[in-house]
Amino acid sequence: MNHSLLEARGIHTYYGASHILRGIDFTVRRGETVGLMGRNGMGKTTLLKTLMGVVPSHKGEIRINGHVTTRSQPCRIARHGVAYVPEGRGIFPNLSVRENLVMAARPGVGGRRDWTFERALKTFPRLGERLGHGGGQLSGGEQQMLTIGRALMTNPDLLILDEATEGLAPIICREIWTVIGAIRDTGIATIIVDKNFRAISSITDRNVILVKGNVVFEGDREALRSQPEVLKNFLGV
Ligand SMILES: Nc1ncnc2c1ncn2[C@@H]1O[C@H](COP(=O)(O)OP(=O)(O)OP(=O)(O)O)[C@@H](O)[C@H]1O
């Protein structure tokens, strides 16, 4: 029995002639929170896009929830239980908060309907106060909450967050980190990319660092924090 929710082996991805991912192995177990770290341009977003089928891998194999998804379209991968929140915010600015949430609703793998409209509002009370507002009228932090709320409404097994707190005020970032911690407690696995390694590593089970398309470190919070040279060399902190 394979307990991995997501398993990628020997992944190579190119943009044209540029060889970006150079043989990456990457695993997420059920319910696990994984921090994906690295300096700018090291291939984090490319790895997420490859896992989601947005960018094709040239070599290697990806399995999600037991299905080989290496050459699947993003919509098929989403149906295998993955919700992807890309950098920037993917909401419909002309639809209301209510419409944005309701439109995204669908059962998860096996018909699971843990996340309902009511539960999303309980998780993000701010959204409940803005139900009639257009998505485009929200602040940056509220838009990010709506994006995450929409992703949860698809009842995912795995939530992928790329730079969820980018450009947001510290107080809003803290609110988002708290929510991500709460999502973790519900058993949803998460991959998080964020520049704030302290915030990430305080909620992750495992951390993976990329340098030039290779995995150079993999370990839990203690392993990461006990190796200042790793932080300095690979993250510049
Ligand atoms: N569409 C593209 N076409 C060509 N090259 C690209 C494209 N997107 C990204 N790259 C290049 O691929 C490399 C990896 O980029 P990627 O966005 O995956 O890095 P990242 O680790 O997510 O960095 P950042 O934190 O800056 O988003 C970079 O050198 C980048 O310039």
TrEMBL record:
Q: Give start and end of each ABC transporter domain.
A: 6-237
What keywords is this UniProt entry annotated with?
Amino-acid transport, ATP-binding, Cell membrane, Membrane, Nucleotide-binding, Transport
Task: Supply the Pfam families for this chain.
Answer: ABC_tran
Could you tell me the superkingdom of the organism this chain comes from? Bacteria
Gene3D superfamilies xref list: P-loop containing nucleotide triphosphate hydrolases (3.40.50.300)
Q: Name one GO molecular function term.
A: ATP binding
**SUPFAM superfamilies recorded:** P-loop containing nucleoside triphosphate hydrolases
PANTHER family per the UniProt record, alphabetical: ABC TRANSPORTER ATP-BINDING PROTEIN, HIGH-AFFINITY BRANCHED-CHAIN AMINO ACID TRANSPORT ATP-BINDING PROTEIN LIVF
Q: Which family does it belong to?
A: Belongs to the ABC transporter superfamily.
* The name this protein goes by in its record: ATP-binding cassette domain-containing protein
Q: Which organism is it from?
A: Aromatoleum toluolicum
